Amino acid sequence: MPRPIARVLTLLELLQSGGVRTVAELADRLGVDERTVRRYVGHLLDLDVPVESVRGRHGGYRLAAGYRMPPLMLTDDEALAVLLGLVAGRRSGLMTDAASETATAKIRRVLPARLRHRLDAVLGSVAFTAPAGEPAVPDASVLLAIADAVTHHRPVAVRYTSADGRQSERALHPHGLVAHSGRWYVTGTDPAIGEDRTFRLDRIAHARTLPGTFDPPDDLDPAQRLLIGLATAPYRHEVVLRIRGSAEQIRTRLPASVAVVEEDGSWSRVELRVERLDWVPGVLAALDLPFVVERPEELRELVAALAERLAESARRTTA
C-alpha cells in the first residue's frame, strides 16, 4: 500500500478514537506537516467520510455524524473481539443468524490475509459447552424505538402477543431494556393502572412513540425488576422456605430469576413460584443447609421421599 494512502487510513483511525484532534497533534502522529494533514482530511471528505473542522484555540478535526458509517479501522485485538462477540450473540439468541453471518462476512472480507487466517483458527477451534440459544430476537425497529423512548422518557404504544397467543395494544412508560438468558425484555409502568409491567421484545410486533414525557422512578433498576418479576410470576405452586444461610449462599443454587430471598438474621426467607416441585428437593439437598418447608405440604413429602432414596442408596453395598 502506498505510504500516503496508509497515512490517510491512519488519520481515519486516529479520528475514530473520538474527540477533537488538533492539526499539530495529527501532524506529529503522522510524521507530516500541517498542510499535508489538511490535504489528507480532504481525501477523507472526498470519500464521504464526515470529518468536521472545529475552530477556536483548541480546534482541529473530529468525525461528525454522517449519513453512512465510515470505514472501520480495527486492530488485531479489536477484530477478534468483534467476531467473537458476533459468534456469542448468535449462540445466545440475542441476534439472528442472518445478521450475524452477514456482519461476520463483511468484516472478514476486509481483513488482511494474515489476520483472517489467525481469526479463522480461533473461531474454528472454539467449542461451546451449552447448545445454541433459542432464537428470540426482537425486530430491530422495535428495539431502537423503545431504546429511544427509554433514553428520552417518552411513552410508547406496543402491539403485543402474549404467551397464549392473545394480541393487544398496550401503553407503556418504558424504564429500561434488559438482556436475560438469550432474550430481550423491556420493563416499565402501565400508566392506565400504575403497575409495573415486563414485556418480551420478540413478542412486540410494533412500537410507536406517544406524545409527552414521564418521570422515571427514583429507585430505577430495570434488571432487578425483571428478575423479581420472573421469580414472582404466577405458576402452579407457591413455595415458601426458611433456610439457615445467607442470600449469597442460597443464590448459588437459586438465582434471582428463580427465587426471592430475604435475609433475617442467620436464616433467610425464600419464595419460589414453580410449575413443578420435583426438582426442588434436589436443589435443597445440593445447598446442604438446614431448612424448613413452610408450604406446600406436597413438597415436604417429596423431600422425605428423596431422603429415603438417598439413605437406601447409602446402605446398598452391591449393584
List the helices and strands and how they pair.
Elements: H1 3-16, H2 23-30, H3 34-46, E1 51-54, E2 60-63, H4 76-92, H5 97-110, H6 113-125, H7 140-152, E3 156-161, E4 167-180, E5 183-190, E6 195-200, E7 204-209, H8 222-231, E8 237-244, H9 247-251, E9 259-264, E10 267-274, H10 280-287, E11 291-295, H11 297-315
Antiparallel strand pairs: 1-2, 3-4, 3-7, 4-5, 5-6, 8-10, 8-11, 9-10
Give me a quick take on this structure.
With 319 residues, the chain is α+β, with helices and mostly antiparallel strands. It is built from eleven helices and eleven strands. The chain is elongated.
Helix content, binned percent: 40-55%
Coarse structural class: alpha+beta
Number of β-strand runs: 11
Proportion in β-strands: 15-25%
How do the strands line up in the largest sheet? 6-5-4-3-7
Radius of gyration: 28 Å
Number of helices: 11
What's the pLDDT, averaged over the residues? 86
SSE order, as H and E?
HHHEEHHHHEEEEEHEHEEHEH
Summarize the biggest pleated sheet: 5 strands, antiparallel
Give the termini distance in whole angstroms: 73 Å
